[in-house]
Amino acid sequence: MNAHHKPDAAPFLLRGDEAGIATLTLNRPQARNPLSEAMLAALSEAFTAIAADRSVKAVILAAAGPVFSAGHDLKEMTPHRADPDRGRAYFADILGRCSAMMQQITALPQPVIAAVEGTATAAGCQLVASCDLAVAGSDARFCTPGVHIGLFCSTPMVALSRNLSAKHAMEMLLLGEMVPAAEAVRMGLVNRAVPAGEALAEAGRLAAIIASKSAATVKTGKRAFYEQREMGLKAAYDHASAVMVENMLARDAEEGIGAFMEKRAPIWES
């Protein structure tokens, strides 16, 4: 293999597993980790595998290099403007694939924690917003800059509007300005900011806490959280009550409540 091809020989996505935690690392630092066709496929494949892997209790999503993710690969997308339909079919396909991958994160049984260093822009910011939790190094910055180039960040908007207040989401979308880590915490995009370079370690600490819980209970709770959020108040309470009844009858709840009453550590089934 000649030297020209060596950078592309590395996997687009790295996976490391330790103590029930799967760490996925976007691995195209020289290209700013874009959500290209290959990166989307690698992420989707990884989430499909993890969803079926009972040994994984939590997932960390990190990135190599100084940029978390610059979002869609405009260099890959723009040539399709020369297609007979001016790229309509291609744009619809790539956006559909990206949206499906973001929804895989929400549907995943295991919680996903973004560990962000550097910048997360456009669909890269959407990726952070789609994760269940997010930790940022103090130098991290977030942005939905599409408005600057005549392309409103409408798909990132879906994730942003479900995580931030309406005013904060619209501020990011309309202004397209970089939001520092501390401000991202205030806005609700990120759970906490830590010293630069420590996001992965803090995400690992949170993942370890989650991994110590009953996996069946965490799975039930995550699914119910996203289901009830899309409902009206009464429907949400009805749904959550039904979920809690089933949860109360589950083996791990019986064990956990018994352990609490007997002042001992619970032994989870999974």
From TrEMBL:
Belongs to the enoyl-CoA hydratase/isomerase family. GO terms for molecular function: hydro-lyase activity. It holds the Pfam family ECH_1. May play a role in fatty acid biosynthesis and insulin sensitivity. This is Enoyl-CoA hydratase domain-containing protein 3, mitochondrial. Keywords: Fatty acid metabolism, Lipid metabolism, Transit peptide. InterPro entries: ClpP/crotonase-like_dom_sf, Enoyl-CoA_hydra/iso, Enoyl-CoA_hydra_C, Mitochondrial_ECH-domain.
